[in-house]
Every structure is written in structure tokens, then in C-alpha cells.
């Protein structure tokens, strides 16, 4: 009876969990199939082929793609935080003329499709000789990210001004107030913004395809996965195995940071 009562109370959550797990289970089963069986009506492997995972390493320089992806995700996240945290602090806690207009401009930048600026930005990086590298993906983060600034501003607004006023009365300047008072209290919001940026960079396909496709040594995992697709044939079993391997690091990161991530998202009111 207790089991039935538990299922009854959590029926919707169980149904959603099964719905989200089904694609992962399907991916895992496909990764052990032969190329001929993959994506057929048979969902269970006729014979198990764990060698598909070693084949992935033999066919592609997966460790190099992983290293490039880590460099891209970590550098982009660190640069974004360096620029976005002070910007969010200025918008949330400082009083200056034009603050509302700048915030509206940042909101408008969030709605701007990246394809609009693709051609002029590509020409600019080509003139600097940086196409074929990951730097065109990382360096713009030194100017901040519109979504991250918005997210951090919303979180900083929840910090009472009395703490900042007390620090100023004790002689702290704005930078010292930010570093000593605001940052320790804003850890959940910073963690949420960092994880959003890290996940975006890890899964980004458009940016690496645009800037690094001409130089395979700088490919990321998302571009490396596409290398299993030829003109007339797609090796779904190897793609499934490689996809599961690329998911492992990001799942581990989320497992250790999920508490701060959920707290930050909850307090800032940002969902999805």
C-alpha cells in the first residue's frame, strides 16, 4: 500500500523522469549495437559491442577535442564572470545617470540573434588572423554576456543595501565592498551564471563550426561528433557511444554543483 501511495503522490514526477530517461537509455543501447542494427525497429542489441567505445577513440582524437572543449568552456566562463559581475553590481547597487537605459540596452542585446553579427565579426577576426582558433569564441567574453549580466543583477537586487551601506561607513570603497561583502553573499547567483555559461560553451556547435572548422586541431567535442557523419552514411552506433562519453564530464560537473545552481536559479527567478 505504501508503494502504491508513493506512486500516486509522485505519478507526474515519475512520468516526467521516465520521459527524460528514455532518450538516454535508447542512446546507451544504440551505442552497443552494430552499425546495421542501429536505428532499426529492434531496440535491444542483438549482440553487445562494447568495442564501439574503443572505436571512437581509434577513429577520432577525442582527448584533444575534450581538451579544446574544456579550454573553451573554462576560459569563456572565467572571462564572463570577470566582466559580468562588476557590470551587474553597477546596475543593481550603484546610482548613476543612464543606468536604466543601459539595462534596457542589455535586455535588447539578449534578444539579438547571433546570426545578425556573424559576418562583420568573422571578418574582424579574420583580419586579426584568429580564425581557425578558439580565441574568437573566448575573447568576447571579456566584454561580458548580456544574459549573465541580467541574471547576476537580478540576484544582487536580493542582497539588502544595509550590508553595503555598513561597509561604506567602515571606509570600504566600491571595489572592496564588491569583493569583501557582495561576492561572498552572491555565490549561488555567480554559480548559476557560471554553470549556464559553461553548459552553453560545452554544447556550442555554431561558434566552433564557424571559427574552428578549418583547423581540426582546434575542434571541440560538438564538431568532433559530426565527424562520424559522411556524405552518404551516418554511423549512429559510434555517434551514440561518443555522445555518451561527451556527456560524462558535464554530468559530473552538474552533480557536484547542482545545489548552488538550483539555489541561484531559484533566487533569481530564472527558469529553463
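Sequence proposed for the structure above (272 residues):
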Amino acid at each position: 500500500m505504501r508503494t502504491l501511495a508513493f506512486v500516486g503522490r509522485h505519478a507526474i514526477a515519475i512520468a516526467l523522469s521516465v520521459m527524460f530517461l528514455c532518450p538516454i537509455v535508447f542512446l546507451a543501447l544504440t551505442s552497443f549495437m552494430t552499425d546495421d542494427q542501429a536505428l532499426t525497429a529492434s531496440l535491444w542489441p542483438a549482440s553487445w559491442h562494447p568495442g564501439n567505445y574503443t572505436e571512437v577513440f581509434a577513429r577520432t582524437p577525442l582527448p584533444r577535442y575534450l581538451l579544446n572543449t574544456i579550454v573553451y568552456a573554462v576560459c569563456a566562463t572565467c572571462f564572463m564572470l570577470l566582466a559580468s559581475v562588476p557590470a551587474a553590481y553597477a546596475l543593481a547597487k550603484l546610482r548613476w545617470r543612464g543606468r536604466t537605459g543601459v539595462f534596457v540596452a542589455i535586455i535588447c542585446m539578449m534578444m539579438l540573434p547571433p546570426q545578425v553579427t556573424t559576418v562583420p565579426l568573422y571578418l574582424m577576426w579574420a583580419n586579426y588572423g584568429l580564425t581557425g582558433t578558439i580565441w574568437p569564441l573566448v575573447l568576447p567574453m571579456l566584454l561580458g554576456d548580456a544574459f549573465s549580466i541580467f541574471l547576476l543583477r537580478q540576484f544582487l537586487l536580493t542582497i539588502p543595501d544595509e550590508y553595503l551601506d555598513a561597509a561604506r561607513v567602515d571606509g570600504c570603497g566600491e571595489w572592496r565592498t564588491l569583493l569583501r561583502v557582495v561576492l561572498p553573499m552572491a555565490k549561488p547567483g555567480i554559480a548559476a551564471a557560471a554553470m549556464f555559461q559553461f553548459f552553453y560553451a560545452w554544447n556550442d556547435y555554431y561558434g566552433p563550426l564557424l571559427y574552428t572548422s578549418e583547423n581540426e586541431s582546434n575542434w571541440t567535442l560538438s564538431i568532433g561528433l559530426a565527424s562520424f557523419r559522411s556524405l552518404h552514411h551516418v554511423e549512429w552506433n559510434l555517434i551514440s557511444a561518443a555522445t555518451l562519453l561527451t556527456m560524462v564530464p558535464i554530468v559530473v560537473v552538474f552533480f557536484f554543483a547542482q545545489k548552488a545552481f538550483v539555489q541561484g536559479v531559484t533566487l533569481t527567478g530564472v527558469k529553463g
